[in-house]
Amino acid sequence: MLQAMKEIRAIGSVCQRITPASFYHVSRPDASLKTTYDSIKDYGSYKNNIFTHRLPESTAEQSPLLVALHSRLSLPKSYSLSTLSQALNLIKFEGLANNFGLNTLGKTLLSYYVSENLLIRYPRLPMPVHNLAIDAYMGVNTLYDIGKSWGIEVDTTTKLEKHLSQEPEFMRYGKLRFLDESAKKSESKEPGVFELTQEELSSVKNDNTYLSREAEAYASAVRSIIGGLYTHEGEEATKSFIHSHILSRKLPLDQMFQFSKPTRELVRLAEKLQFSEPVEIRLIAETGRLSSHAMYVAGAFCGTDKLGEGIGSSLQEAKTRAVVNALMSYYLYSPVSQDGSPVKLPSDNDYKFEGIVGGGDVAI
Amino acid sequence: MPVKGIAKTALSRNGVSSYVLPCHRVVLQYCNWGGSSQGIRDLLKSGQLDTIARQRESVVFEIARRSGHPKLSFKFAHDKSKEVNIANLDKSEIVRKLQDNIQSSGSELFKWNHKVMSSNESVRGIWSPLHVSNENRFKI
Amino acid sequence: MLKLFMPGLRQRKIPRVGLSRCISTQESFKSEAVTKSTHDLSLLKFDSNGSNNLYAIFKLYNIPYLVTKGDKVVLPYKLKNAEAGDKLILNNVTTIGSPNFTYSDNKGIKQELYDLTAKVIEITKEPYYEVYRTKPRCRRVKTFGVQPYQTILMISELKLK
Questions:
Q1: pTM
Q2: Cβ–Cβ of C156/B118 closer than 8 Å?
Q3: ipTM confidence
Q4: For residue B64, what are the domain limits?
């Protein structure tokens, strides 16, 4: 045991001597991109020397899948098919430009418009719920679902299979390409059984949530299509695309709260908001204690103001429901502007700050 | 942590502000020899399929020659698919089958015995006997 | 100091208390002030929290449908001259309501007050079933296979202008 410890220490010290940087969190350029630079601090001189070229528009036009996808999403004419094909390519080493940049761009735009929307529409959302709400709109699972509904197909056949079935070369440019040749071959024949690579195993999280590579690839393609729209059409078109495809979904915010001690939280909230009178829970109505299925209606009150109301089959249940109801109606408050229309977003024209700021979360 | 969140995904509402046709690919399979493929051979010869394909630019049309009875296979969003047998049907009937199925969502056929299908909560809420004012309550 | 603003108890699955108040255009109200206020739907606007919490009853072939935004309307027939993806502007609306207020007019609400559109999302069929028909004094039962069309609409917009 002791010897083993010593060995580990010895190995540790060796590591320390060879690569001291590995003990810090340092971002390094991707070696596969063969990046060169004049000076490490001169970011403008960074240049990737990996050979890539963009698909010629004339080739992209021959792919029926690309033309159909372009029309299905009703993208503007200026959005070239070669960009669309690039958005579907995740493979680095085939010489064709991949979607790395478009993906980053799309992700940035998405997170801006989604968080802007949530912050303005629900200014009092607690931080954990806000983060999950952003995930519900633009998390990998949601984008995977969107990608599937757009009818994006995955390129799963190997070169040999394509050759044997005499599939034209340009068909694959309209498909989602993320599997390299070896991955395609190792596809298990058993339906519903997948063999995970070492890389995929490491992505399995502690809570047993696992995102397949396919889901990640779909999400990245959706983000890249949004990024591509920005490069061709600019901000306005991207914003309306995000609003119509992503923010038009229904967010079940009222199912996303989990309270551990709701009563205590409501009392703290009342303290924080400096309510003049204490929070009280009162019984409003009941069917009678001796009735066969007793029902109680409880209300959370502050003086004469009713903050929330709940129905339960026991006094405790009714009370908890009332308190949770009061908390939810506080957290899910959504402001309206002075003329009764929804408030404007910061990215809208002639936006004026209308003075609604969340007060932050309460601590118990 | 006072409040914890529960992870959910936003529900898809295809048709609210954007609409993507669920059908994205149609494969027309025919046989060059069999008599049951006569209708689809007529359709392919007439050039009517070109006009249909031009009208529906968002759908990929694929023509496959294979032996056996002819069929149409449709691929829809979310990996749903449907196969329609068109053996011994004439040209116009095949066109009707094609147009009908392209416009469906590919989910299983069902009958909904109500007028409206809603994922929203009722605006007015549900009537409750416990909230009727005291004098109007039912007394035993 | 922040004011605690409650967005209405309805949102949290709470039943309403009492009857809702109605705003209606009645012939008996002749004074101009009243008619003006009847077309001012700001009460409805605020109560629905910026058209977020709104329902409407529209009529299609004289059949009423109560809808909110994002609802699917299932029509048991093939809508004439409509294809999947078409946008319909529904202009025969008799009632618009929020949790506490209702605006209704049996002759139809003026179109400039609201915005109600639907999209044809699907034209499909009901599952196949068989209908048996008999004639009197005849033992023969005739069987008919039926598979009627269905049109599904999605309410894509419902708001007050």
A1: 0.84
A2: no
A3: 0.92
A4: 23-102
